[in-house]
Amino acid sequence: HVQLVESGGGSVEAGGSLRLSCVASENIFSSYCMAWFSQAPGKEREAVAVIDSDATTKYAESVKGRFTISKDHAKNTLYLQMNSLKPEDSAMYYCAARSASCALTWAREDLYNWWGQGTQVTVS
């Protein structure tokens, strides 16, 4: 059972930056698809970015050019660098993992096996 713990959320002004972190309880990055999802109040949870076992990345259109997903195998830590933040980026951000390639279904939350508890991002 993989445990994921996010941190790094907070309140920031529009145009600012935050870096989210997600520490995994096991060394899974070599074989798992890792993702960041966001969920704003009253909205569906949606995929923000993923990084595959081979470090291939994909992004939602709304964050391309502003967010960067990365991982550190030695620290078992997934990151999401968020720059040029906008009020519409405000949401709870979740780290997720699945024991398969990200492939074409990377945005489907039902295919992820493990989830963190979330970290809140508020942009004003």
What does the model show?
This protein is mostly beta strands and 124 residues long. The chain is built from no helices and eleven strands. It has strands at residues 4-7, 10-12, 18-24, 33-39, 46-51, 57-59, 67-72, 77-82, 91-98, 114-115, 119-123. The strands form two sheets. Strands 2, 4, 5, 6, 9, 10 and 11 form a seven-stranded mixed beta sheet that branches. Strands 1-3-8-7 form a four-stranded antiparallel beta sheet, with no helix packed on it. A hairpin with a 5-residue loop joins strand 5 and strand 6. The chain is globular.
Write out key terms for the chains shown.
single chain, 124 residues, mainly beta, seven-stranded mixed sheet, four-stranded antiparallel sheet, 11 strands, globular
Distance between the termini: 37 Å
Kindly state the mean pLDDT as a whole number? 96
Instruction: Write the element-wise H/E pattern from the N-terminal end onward.
Output: EEEEEEEEEEE
Structural class, from helix and strand content? mainly beta
Structure annotation, total helices: 0
Number of strands: 11
Percentage beta strand: over 45%
Radius of gyration: 13 Å
Main sheet record: 7 strands, mixed
The gross shape turns out to be globular
Q: Uncertain regions: pLDDT < 50 for 5+ in a row?
A: none
What is the share of helical residues?
under 10%
